[in-house]
Specification:
With 387 residues, the protein is α+β, with helices and mostly antiparallel strands. Helix content is 50%, strand content 12%. The chain is built from 13 helices and eight strands. It has helices spanning 12-38, 43-48, 77-82, 85-104, 115-124, 137-142, 152-163, 169-192, 213-225, 253-281, 288-305, 325-334, 350-361, and strands at 53-57, 64-67, 72-76, 199-208, 229-237, 242-252, 364-365, 382-383. A three-stranded mixed sheet has the order 1-3-2. A three-stranded antiparallel sheet has the order 4-6-5, sandwiched between helices. Strands 7-8 form a two-stranded antiparallel sheet. α7 packs antiparallel against α8. It is globular, with a radius of gyration of 24 Å. The termini are far apart.
Length: 387
């Protein structure tokens, strides 16, 4: 006899309870980020700014607001529920700048976005525009754009990335390396000509309490080959309710998008390749880092091949890299006190590392650049392995 069993229903009280837990974690995160940002202010100004109240409310037409009378920073429920943490942090710092202007700089008679507010934004490294109907950070980066004359190279790069989907391994690899050559030449030419460029900063991945060795190798690969610069910064880990760290990359809009895509594609490739390798070799999860580092090093070797002409029939020659001093100045303003650190990891399994490198050399990344008119926007694909 068949028995129909109804799944347990989620009651309104349960939904309300889960929402309350989520809200409390967000509010604790806002406080932690506020306290962290407070230390970027000069000491006399820091003493004059007191901890505010924090709130989450439905605000269909605003991302956030600062109430001088209530001494309260409010963020919209839409931004905290539907966006990434760097989107949320951008809005928080904007509203904190209003608080600093009112309480610290005593700008009670100025317009809301007057000189004192802009000074506070500069001190906090906040975006003066991140309010009202302004689009959140990631929405702005991924919105459609009209290509200028000098950006026609982007269309050529896209076509090469499409060729990188070829089932012919040699053709796919040649197309990917040629696309990378054009990306490099395009950036070197813009830097050498001193073309004014806007820079953006985004988180790659979610903030975590602990990052494994492969995360640092991947960060270096992006910085060495994709015209972005990275800084590990403190950020709220929502699921743990603690401050952790996250990689923030900075660069032009196109380069940040490319680096974001490359980062996600390599991480997905590592997950898939490791699942197969672990099953075939009966390994435990402790060897995953060795395998992942090997994959990154193998892919790095592929990119380094683009520095020489005629490697395996691939005709590429990269231009000499030049320093992007404008990006360096942007980062110096954003993070005036940055220090380098290094850590010695545990011993590794040479065989697993070598197998990872072999897998990494087979990684072909395609469609790393999109264009909204003429191509399917936001559909980013990658080949996992060419046998």
């Amino acid at each position: 006899m068949a028995v129909n069993v109804r799944p347990p229903s989620i009651t309104a009280d349960r939904v309300s309870s889960l929402q309350s837990i989520f809200d409390r974690r967000i509010l604790r995160g806002l406080l932690a980020e506020w306290e962290n940002a407070l230390w970027t202010l000069p000491k006399p100004l820091r003493r004059s700014v007191k901890r505010p109240l924090f709130a989450i409310r439905d605000m269909p037409t605003r991302l956030g607001c600062w109430s001088r009378n209530k001494r309260e920073i409010t963020l919209s429920r839409e931004i905290v529920s539907g966006h990434r943490w760097d989107d949320i942090k951008e809005v928080l710092l904007h509203e904190m700048a209003h608080q600093v202007a009112h309480e610290g700089l005593q700008a009670t008679a100025e317009p809301d976005h007057g000189d004192s507010f802009r000074k506070a934004c500069s001190l906090l490294r906040a975006n003066p525009a991140a309010s009202g109907t302004y689009r959140p950070l990631h929405a702005r980066l991924h919105q459609g754009e009209v290509l200028s004359g000098r950006d026609r190279i982007v269309v050529r790069i896209h076509k090469l990335m499409a060729l990188a989907e070829s089932s012919n391994p040699n053709e796919a690899k040649a197309a990917m390396l040629k696309a990378y050559e054009l990306i490099s030449r395009h950036n070197v030419n813009l830097i050498a000509q001193g073309v004014d460029q806007d820079y953006h900063s985004i988180f790659l991945g979610a903030p975590r309490l602990r990052h494994f060795r492969e995360a640092y190798y991947l960060a270096h690969l992006l910085q060495d080959f994709y015209f972005v610069q990275g800084v590990w910064i403190q950020a709220w880990v929502l699921e743990k309710g603690k401050m952790g760290r996250v990689l923030e990359i900075s660069g032009t809009r196109k380069n940040v998008r490319i680096a974001e895509y490359i980062h996600a594609a390599i991480e997905r490739y590592i997950d898939t390749a490791w699942a197969d390798y672990r099953r075939d070799n009966g390994l435990n999860h402790f060897r995953r880092t060795d395998f992942a580092v090997g994959i990154i090093e193998g892919f790095k070797a592929t990119l380094q091949q683009a520095c020489t002409a005629g490697s395996r029939g691939v005709d590429t020659r990269l231009p000499v890299r030049v320093a992007d001093h404008a990006l360096t100045r942007y980062l110096s303003r954003r993070y005036p006190h940055v220090r380098s650190f290094s850590r010695k990891g545990p011993g590794h399994d040479a065989r697993v590392l070598a197998d990872g490198k072999e897998r990494g050399r087979k990684l072909i990344i395609a469609k790393g650049i999109t264009r909204s008119d003429g191509f399917r926007n936001q559909v980013l694909e990658y080949k996992q392995e060419l046998k």
